């Protein structure tokens, strides 16, 4: 599996590709959790990001970890080191943003799907939380 899709409501799927070279353990652990669904809300301080503090628990270390992201990147908080404030959190940046603590940056939306991701982010910003379904990308 080289990535995943997300879908909210009845919209078309939004495709992401894994950063398998820079975050291999995170990608492998995340892929093993698929499919799943979680409720995402809009971030308050980290910019154009939707996030949840109820992500799948991945027993991974920090890899490719940073607070600096690019639009379209997906991040997840590592369980180690224990001091990580982002453990059990997951975010998807649909525009500019900066995290509050380092997360593992493990995937990025396909360029042609960035507009759909921005639409979803704005919908969550203006209309509230949404359940997002995650599935493997063949």
Detailed description of the structure:
The mean pLDDT is 92. This protein is globular. The protein is built from two helices and eight strands. It is an alpha+beta fold and 138 residues long. It has helices spanning 24-33, 114-127, and strands at residues 3-8, 14-18, 36-42, 47-52, 65-68, 73-76, 90-109, 130-137. The termini are close together. Strand 3 and strand 4 form a beta hairpin. Strands 1-2-7-4-3-8 form a six-stranded antiparallel barrel.
Detail the topology: elements first, then pairings.
Blueprint: E1 3-8, E2 14-18, H1 24-33, E3 36-42, E4 47-52, E5 65-68, E6 73-76, E7 90-109, H2 114-127, E8 130-137
Antiparallel strand pairs: 1-2, 1-8, 2-7, 3-4, 3-8, 4-7, 5-7, 6-7
Key features of this structure:
138 residues, alpha+beta, six-stranded antiparallel barrel, 2 helices, 8 strands
């Amino acid at each position: 599996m080289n990535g995943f899709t997300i879908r909210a409501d009845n919209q078309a799927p939004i495709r992401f590709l894994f950063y398998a070279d820079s975050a291999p353990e995170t990608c492998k652990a995340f892929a093993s959790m698929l499919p799943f669904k979680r409720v995402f809300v809009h971030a308050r301080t980290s910019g154009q990001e939707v996030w949840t503090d109820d992500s799948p628990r991945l027993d991974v270390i920090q890899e490719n970890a940073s607070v600096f992201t690019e639009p379209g990147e997906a991040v997840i908080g590592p369980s180690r080191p224990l001091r990580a404030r982002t453990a059990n959190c997951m975010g998807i940046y649909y525009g500019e943003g900066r995290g509050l603590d380092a997360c593992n940056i493990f995937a990025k939306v396909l360029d042609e799907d960035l507009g759909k991701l921005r639409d979803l982010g704005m919908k969550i910003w203006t209309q509230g939380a949404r359940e997002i379904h995650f599935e493997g990308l063949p």
